[in-house]
User: Fold this.
Amino acid sequence: MLKEVETYLLILNDLRNQVKNLLEKFPDGALDWCPIEGQGVLAMNSGIILVTHLAGSESFWIKEVIGGQPIHRNRDAEFITKGVAMAKLKRRLEGGAQNTEAILSSLTSAQWAAGFNKKSGPGCEYLP
Assistant:
């Protein structure tokens, strides 16, 4: 495995563990709570939405963009997710971790050096 990949995996695993630790601090039923309901610049997302979007984003960028495997992501649906159990959210994060490790650890030096670019398709409308 490339040293760069090892470093990225360590960072991503640390970030995922931080999210899981934060999830455990939520009391039952609080994951759906939204500090400011509604739409627009002042609206905020619930814990469920944030974790769902985090898992969806990782899957898109790692599995689809880098791995070349279509995931058929529905990004908009991530922002209306409700009622997901904590165990399921953790499984989403862990599943993403497994996919990320498998894809990134399979990269060659040449692939790493060439980089990855996604200029069109679902999700790219959010790129600058």
